[in-house]
Amino acid sequence: MTCMETQKMITPFINDELTLEETELFIDHVNSCLECREELEVYYALLTAMKQLDEDKILYDDFSMELSAKLDKAQEKIINAKFTYYRKKGALLLIILIVLAVVSWRYSGRREEPVVIVKESDFRLQIKYQRTKENSLEQKLQSYLEKLEMMEE
């Protein structure tokens, strides 16, 4: 993040209008750039003092301490959000692993089906079946015809 971008974000930061990602980038830059840190301190002192005057509150002398507390609070908020994000991802991964373990355990206990050794090809079996079928039909037809001949005699 550049100094110009950071300076544009000073007022929104003070008014808590930045997203967590923007806040994280802002804090990282402010912690590494002394000029932007000084700019933030000046703006924070001015805006906070004006706000306190508008609300008829007592003016505090140590705005830098308040600013440090605000920065620390923002960093804690970012850390908590990241922790929550990674905790959810971890929980999801754990659930997926448990489901996979249960499914694999369930199917690992299955008995293996007996291995069938084919002694004849399917084609031979089909021909054999058709012949057997034809023979039985022929036999029935032959016996029926014989009965008819006997009846006619």
Keywords for this structure?
153 residues, rod-shaped, 2 domains, mainly alpha
Explained architecture:
The structure is a single chain. 80% of the residues lie in helices and 0% in strands. It has helices spanning 3-8, 10-14, 20-32, 34-54, 63-108, 122-152. The longest helix is centred in the middle third of the chain and has 46 residues, at 63-108. It is built from six helices and no strands. It is rod-shaped and about 135 Å long. 6% of the residues are buried. The chain has two domains: 3-108, no CATH class; 120-153. By secondary structure, it is mainly α. Helix 3 (20-32) packs across helix 4 and helix 3 packs across helix 5. The model has no long low-confidence stretch (mean pLDDT 84).
Number of domains: 2
Number of strands: 0
**Poorly predicted runs:** none
Overall average residue pLDDT: 84
Relative strand content: under 5%
Count of DSSP-assigned helices = 6
> In this structure, how is the largest beta sheet organized?
none
Distance between termini?
115 Å
Amount of helix? over 70%
Query: H/E element string?
Result: HHHHHH
Shape: rod-shaped
Radius of gyration: 43 Å
Label the structural class: mainly alpha
Condensed summary:
The protein has 153 residues and is an all-alpha fold. It has two domains: 3-108, no CATH class; 120-153.
Write the layout of secondary structure elements.
Layout: H1 3-8, H2 10-14, H3 20-32, H4 34-54, H5 63-108, H6 122-152
